[in-house]
Amino acid sequence: MRLIIREDYEEVSEFVATYIKERIKQFEPDESHPFVLGLPTGSSPIGIYKRLVEYYKAGDVSFKHVVTFNMDEYVGLPRDHPESYHSFMWKNLFMHVDIKPENVHILDGNTPNLDEECKKFEADIARVGGIELFLGGIGPDGHIAFNEPGSSLNSRTRVKTLAYETILANARFFDGDISKVPKLALTVGVATVMDAREVLIIITGAHKAIALAKCIEEGVNHMWTVSAIQMHPKGMIVCDEDATLELHVKTVKYFKSIEHVHHSLIGPENLSLQGGVKQLKTGIHGTNNHHRPSTPME
């Protein structure tokens, strides 16, 4: 697992947006071979989506052959409600890029048969060959999507009752009125996320520092569902300095030293975008370059 530490939310957003852009470009998607991307909502990805829109407008990336699957949606909230995740995604990303509407998959929380909707969502993911890259954020209690503490790590897309803490946290989007917050949601399962060929989690802010520490320094635990990323062969967490406050100093130094070795001793030109070493850098002795990269390595 890779842990990439950046100074603040802005740097995290820049890194992740650039990484996604480069992954799409290197994949070279076409109509018969689309890039399949899993996406979150909430406050964590807003800066990333803003930068992806900027890249699209600058001609640096296209979403024409990108297929998306969103993590979750509230049950019973009208699709055009300003706080529905359908509205969120179109407002913050989809309406600003060239993605085809038929390539957007968002769970329908108003369908008469919620269980069938969840099964269809899983089948749709399988039909396109699985998810290439799943982007996610977490809550302060370490939940990914709406997989609250105690969720099965083998869980699939399903109906989920939201924890009181999650309802309380989401009340800020509903005029601070808990009674207006939906109590049920449709969500991908932990296993749905971990089935993706690559998983990238964003963790920012001191209020998520304990969750990051549990994920990085302790074992896999269904009470901190994000910890399942430890078992993924291509898992990456990108965090800011505030999120590292509960990590041991030696842990932070270790992950920063790995990135320093990649950049200064091996050389970014000798690394794949996903961090694999293609070849050793020649003439590495005597380097004085101690600056860490601000964009993904290629």
Automatic annotation (TrEMBL):
PANTHER family: GLUCOSAMINE-6-PHOSPHATE ISOMERASE. One of its GO terms (biological process) is glucosamine catabolic process. This is Glucosamine-6-phosphate isomerase. Keywords: Carbohydrate metabolism, Cytoplasm, Hydrolase. One of its GO terms (molecular function) is glucosamine-6-phosphate deaminase activity. It is found in: Cytoplasm. Its main location: cytoplasm. GO terms for cellular component: cytoplasm. InterPro entries: Glc/Gal-6P_isomerase, Glucosamine6P_isomerase, Glucosamine6P_isomerase_CS, NagB/RpiA_transferase-like. It comes from Rhizopus delemar. Homohexamer. Its EC number is 3.5.99.6. Residues 8-230 form the Glucosamine/galactosamine-6-phosphate isomerase domain. Pfam families: Glucosamine_iso. It catalyses: alpha-D-glucosamine 6-phosphate + H2O = beta-D-fructose 6-phosphate + NH4(+). Belongs to the glucosamine/galactosamine-6-phosphate isomerase family. NCBIfam families: nagB.
